[in-house]
Amino acid sequence: GLFVTDYFTRTPRKLSPFRSFASIELFHFHIPEDTVIAVWNLITFKEQGGTFGDQCPDRSITVYFRSGAPSVINPLHTHFPRDTAVPGSFALTLTWTLPNRTTGVFNVTSPLPGDWFLAAHLPKDEGKISVKGLYEECQYLFQPQLIVQRLVNIAVLYPGYVTEQSMAPHNRSCLYKVFVPSYTSRVLVEVLRCRGAEGCPLWLRVRAKAPPLHNSTALDCREHAPCQLALDLPFWQHWYYVLVEKHPGVPGTVSFQVTVQLTDCSRPSLGRPPFLPSSASMNMPHSFGSAGGLALGDGPPPASPNDTKHPVSVPTASSAGERCWPIRPTLRNELDTFSVHFYIFFGPNVSVPPDRPAVFVISLLPVLDSGGVLNLELRLNVSSLCGENVTVFGCLNHEVPLMSGDNASVTCETESLAGFLLTVNATASLSRLRIPYPQTGSWYLSLRSLCATEHGFEPCTNVTAEVYLRAYLSPCINDCGIYGQCKLLRTNNYLYAACECKAGWNGWGCTDNAEAFSYGFQLLSTLLLCLSNVMFVPPVAIAVRSHYLLEAAVYIFTMFFSTFYHACDQPGIVVFCIMEYDVLQFCDFLGSLMSVWVTVIAMARLQPVVLYLLGAMLLSMALQMDRHGLWNLLGPSLFALGIMAVAWTARTIRRRHCYPPTWKRWAFYLCPGALIAAAAVLLYAFVETEENYFYIHSIWHLLIAGSVGFLLPPRAKPTGRLGPLPRRKGCGYQLCVNEQEELGLVDPAVASINSICTS
């Protein structure tokens, strides 16, 4: 055949350590139909400070692959919520081959067409809280590239017609495909009139959705005559690929005929007549490969010398298990993103008759619905059982309903089909099922009622069970509970939701409490972070006593908003918010930086109000730009220290003596205060982690407030200027000061009393 190669790539993204699914990087690819091989080239490289990170440590990178929906991963081995089905995926770990770059290759032969998702992350770290901009962080960038090779002009088999083929000596196989419409209960592929040097040296392989593999359903035509391969309960609305492969070492040309027969379960007494599909198969694609499109009522395509077609007889289906029952649709009601309810007509209570199953279909839209959670709930009305020991079995299957006539549906599985089982009875009348990141398409729910006997389950007689059925799509499982937050995430144009847990809780739905914080621990951490701000009371008292009223007001502002910000910032349930979180955070950061600013300005003995206003404006601008940026916060503080250094230097030069002048001020106040502040900064920048945050940050509060008490200068002494003289009475006279002198227009040093006022 003719091969076409397609290339796809994605933009490199920075990987993060795994904490929850919200911390992974998700990549979305689309593999076209008729793809015979897909090769993912996984490129990973390090960066540090805009250059290659040769000095960065080697950290393993885990990549997950899944077709149809994102992978449901659990690298921390946490517990999933009850009644949760975990779909499987394939994982690959990348190791480093070069100091700053590594490449991995992942091949998939005959991959399933449609959406493929890759998820990548770094291992979980120790949770260190780093100050943004303090040092160049090591970044691990991941870029996947996809190369696919697909066949074009694959020959199409039409049900009920024979295709003749001759396989030349240099050819090893022939590939065909046939479309299976809805309401098809059986696919029969047959090789006829096989003639070769050694009988019929052919292998017959069949696979749904993609070309067959070595482990696909196969039949050796040399050992089976006639060479027929039957598939029961095929996937609806999909292509089935037929591979006729020659045994290795067989000489000469092998000629054969191949035909496909489909059994229509909606008409069990008839096979599907050629080119007259049922009404449900009207959605058959028009991309019929080399044979061209075929509309309803058209005749077969013209025959070629090596590819002739003519009708064959279609056997009837006599088995009762090949019948299919009416499928009741559901009404889709979209409330929000990943919030969809599926309503049943004349529901939600449904009747399950004893002689046949009740079948419902839930349609999930491609791409749009695979990022949420599919929820299913069955509740049995015990009063409808009339005292019988009835059990209602529900089988949820993807793309084809499981409706066999015997009791095999109790397992919801066949050789080529696997589903999810739900059971309700008089003892356990409620059953739930949650499927995170479900595959899109049609999901079929088959409900059957069976009565328990001594010999197992048997069909019931004259008992119609009533079941309450609820099906809906939600963003997260139980909205992540009280210890989690459901986040809506986006990668390019693909949306998905995931839980982000807090207070030590883990798991897909934040239900794993193996490392959870107790209520007492949460209360203790909240009290420590809040009450440690009481340490600002002594600096407030010192500022008031020294007549630093503006500084005292700033310290009170800082103490108030820091207390209530940390009361609102707690991860658990001990939370108290008096304002919006963002307002409290801004005021806490602003108050902390303003405390530093006014303290340094006071140490400089500068009183102009313009400096305080300048600091407030600069700090507000810096916080609005980036509240966690190092230099946006450190810049104004260094500017204030520069002003203080200039003021102290000017005084030292003018007085020709070191300022502050006394050694006691340096030994007992400035040096201890500076050491305490430096210790607080070191703890904040290098020691604080997520585990020790509550007590390290409390110590930070204590040290910062204590350093302010040491660094705040004493009350300023009088400048020596003579103010207005007091009015004194003596000997019946009152001495008065000249009015000009009182207004400061005369030098007080040469002031004279030149007016006498009579009392």
Overview of the structural elements:
The protein is α+β, with helices and mostly antiparallel strands. The protein has 4 domains: 2-152, Jelly Rolls (Sandwich), CATH 2.60.120; 155-264, Jelly Rolls; 342-475, Jelly Rolls; 519-711. Helices cover 21% and strands 33% of the residues. Helix 1 packs antiparallel against helix 3. The longest helix is centred in the C-terminal third of the chain and has 26 residues, at 630-655.
Helix amount: 10-25%
Q: Report the major sheet.
A: 6 strands, antiparallel
Number of helices: 9
Q: What is the residue-averaged pLDDT? A: 82
Kindly, what is the distance between the CA atoms of the first and last residues, rounded to a whole number of angstroms?
A: 126 Å
Number of domains: 4
Gross geometry: elongated
Subcellular location: Cell membrane
Region (Disordered): 293-317
Keywords: Cell membrane, Membrane, Transmembrane, Transmembrane helix
Protein name: TMM8B protein
What attributes characterize this protein structure?
759 residues; alpha+beta; Jelly Rolls; 4 domains; six-stranded antiparallel β-sheet; six-stranded mixed β-sheet; 36 strands; 33% strand; elongated; disordered C terminus
